[in-house]
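Pipeline run #58 for the internal structure catalog. This entry was flagged by the ingest filter as a single-chain record with no existing model, so it goes straight to prediction. Upstream metadata was stripped on purpose; only the residue string is passed forward. Reviewer on rotation: M.T. Logging verbosity set to normal.
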Amino acid sequence: MQGPEPVTLGIADGIARIVLADPDNRNAVTARSSAAFLAAAKKAVSAPEVRVIVLSGAGDFFCVGGHIGEFMANESSLPEHIATLTDNIHGGIRHLVRSSIPVVVGLNGMVAGGGVGIMLTGDVIVARRSARINSGYTRSGLTPDAGLTWHLPRLIGHARAFEVVAFNEFISAQQALELGLVSRVVDDEAFEAELEAVVESLNRSVGTMLGDAKRLLRQVAGETLEAQLDAEAAAIAARVALPETVEKLAAFASRQSAKGQR
């Protein structure tokens, strides 16, 4: 039995709500969730009645990136496994970023790894004050994916982006606001109400003008997202074929397992 859907989609009153809905696994990216994310994104952007897309996470985490335990369970075919995940996640990101429909991200908690790239698909990112951001890649021996190397330097500059990736530093919601990684920070108890207020405001005002504005603003960042996503996918798949990476992943999984048993 596979259990509940790890990503859900609901459409009502012009609003498509995509929820990363696997809180027991901290909404980690798995084979199932990546495929469900792609399907949800594709359906949301193609539904003619949708005027706003909301992307959020269930529980206390937004998304912690790849499921390391599943990585190790597929150790014998890890490059192929990673390639499938990145194909799905990158496909979903392409749909959300290239759509003229505004995307509102509700950053409900901790986000790491590929989850950061998913978060950055948002045109508006509303963050809970207790939320934190961590790239996490070099700790597990991986290279960034999910569009992180495309978005980060364009948002905060190369030098700061390199530090974020290289040193795995934790970034508070307030720091993320000051850097320009999120749009607004809201006290935890007011988070849901503020998120809904933003969504409803866009839902009332959205039209072809706002869609055109999104397209033009995205073009300012350069028309190379697809090429960058392809480059990221190739790099991370090649990386997991190296014994040193598998060793780091195994050590990372062991540490996570030890934490969970405490």
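catalog note: The longest strand covers residues 7-12.
catalog note: The two ends are 28 Å apart (CA to CA).
status: ready for reviewer M.T.
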